[in-house]
Specification:
Length: 73
């Protein structure tokens, strides 16, 4: 059976609750805030890599003692 209009108005699933309106709002982040977040994440990754005695995955060229490093193109 179909719900009546009164049932629909009383149903919590169909109510436009304040928290649901807040949840649907679009979030915006400024460029500065995104850059700060990125820097923080890179710092955390570097600390974790140091803790595990490894280096973050960045492109590097291996060098041997006594030979100059090849330029990266």
């Amino acid at each position: 059976a179909r719900p009546t209009i009164k049932d629909c108005f009383n149903n919590s699933w169909l109510q436009d609750a304040y928290l649901m309106r807040l949840r649907r709002q679009t979030l915006t982040f400024t460029t500065t805030r995104l850059k700060e977040f990125l820097e923080q994440q890179q710092q955390v990754r570097a600390e974790v890599a140091t803790k595990h005695k490894s280096t973050p995955q960045t492109p590097t060229t291996p060098t041997t003692p006594g030979t100059p490093a090849a330029p990266v193109s």
